[in-house]
Amino acid sequence: MTEFFGANNLSEILPFGGVAFFIGIAFVLWFGVARGKTFMMFFQQEEYDNQRFVRWLADNKAYDQKATLLLGIAILIGALGHLDALAGLSLLLQPLILLALIFGIFTSSRTIRNSKKPLVVTARVKRIFAVYMGLFIAALGFASIITALAPKGSSYRLDIASDSASSFFDISISGYNWEAVFAAVLLILAIQAVPYLIIAANILLAPIEERIKLGYRREAEEKFNALKPKVIAITGSFGKTSTKHILSHILSYSAPTLATPGSINTEMGITRVIREMLKPNHIYFIVEMGAYGIGSIARLCTLTPPVTGLITAIGAAHFERFKSLENVARAKFELAEAVFNSGGTIVVNKDAVEPKLLQNRMQKTVGDYMLVGHGPDDMAAIQISDYQMTQDGLTIHISAGDENITLQAPLYGDHQAGNIVLAAASARALGMPWSAIKGALRSVAQIPHRLAVTKPANGPVIINDAYNSNPVGFEAALKCLDVLVQSGGRRILITPGMVELGEKHDREHARLGAMSVKHADIILVVSPDRIPTFTDAINHNNDGSVSVMNFAAQVSAENWARQNATNQDVILFENNLPDLFEAKIRF
Fold this sequence. Notes:
alpha/beta, UDP-N-acetylmuramoyl-L-alanine:D-glutamate ligase, Protein-Tyrosine Phosphatase, Chain A, 3 domains, 9-stranded mixed β-sheet, 20 helices, 17 strands, 16% strand
């Protein structure tokens, strides 16, 4: 194993003899752990999807540079260090290899330390990381064997005559240090292979993961079937989490209610909620369902069969996954089919679905629809007549049959008006009277990170829309700036733009860039290189009255606002990209 560091005996590395070898091995393993944890963090953010992770690696050029450069210099020294003229450089060989590993450890640790969404060490992460480390150690062992088999240097003598026949000089070459060259080359390969070893570990564990998932799912199914709560399922391109939050608050006034927390909407997430959180007293179970492909919602509905369902929108969010709105609609309306199989009602926000698309889906999946939308409209069972947004929240006027009802909630944003009515309609479909629904809405809490407004006694008004990433929500949030700014204050927008819009990325950013100029006095753009049409539209429509600044990272923009905003200002934090999109990977 000592040949791994390019030496035939340990005294060639450091005067500490065998200690140096173990120090070197420790640094290699330390590097493997540090770099592995960094890539595992991004792999987890890509939801352990091998193909998406590979695309992310390619798009971000997430390959090692600093350690590889130092190892390249070590290779050069190993090849030329035995020239008499360069003999002294050979002393740098082993220190350079160790320095390369230290650089790699440092850059990996810095990336983890600066991450906005750190690695969550789940049981699955532990399994993948253990197999990855096994593969990494095996790769090192293979590299050590190859290095040990490398040819040893040879001695040569070469006399070269000068112009003077009586004068000679010679260059003595004792040969290449092949051991060091091989060690450095193989170490470069090992460094660059780290993310692919993680993918290999994930592939190797796939059969085991499936068995584990099946076991957890069976356990969740048994518990669910024993408790039999009434399931209200929610899906849509956007608005799911906000509508779920509002509906959970309303139903809790009627009976004990459990809702999947945060943005949990996958099979394993729902399974875990059932296993760990569902209790015998829960009458209602509100389940957010995410569509990651055709058939995914149908599968979720076999786990938690819904008696009522909500479709909040069919839009551009996650357009990259589905390629067309027709595919998005097909995936989302799997929920309608499941609800109708149980004899239930599906509530749909008709304003957020293209009319032809909605009509087509309703013809293909026939059942009891309750449509909600702005009226007058013969199709909508519940019509939104109008609404007003003030500094105290939303007041919404609706009609349901012969009834005219006013709903009030301390929430903000045009799109939240639709979410509130959707939640209210779902509660009504479950039998709650309008009086109880109205009373519950008056005390609904702010939805964390989704147009959540805070008004500190000493500081600017904050609109936290950090978890938003769709054009409708972005537009609604901009309008809130006009309502919530104080007299003499400034409207400040901080945004990195949106993600997962597919072919609509440039068009939507251009539209919202032009709109931002109308609703903001100061615009702080994060990662402008990622959204050039947004910045171009701002510059094109700006008459000079709007101040525009660019920042490489979210934290820099936030620091500017913290230092410069006054008590009269209002600050909108519109989206906050995960590390996958914002982090500049420079290993």
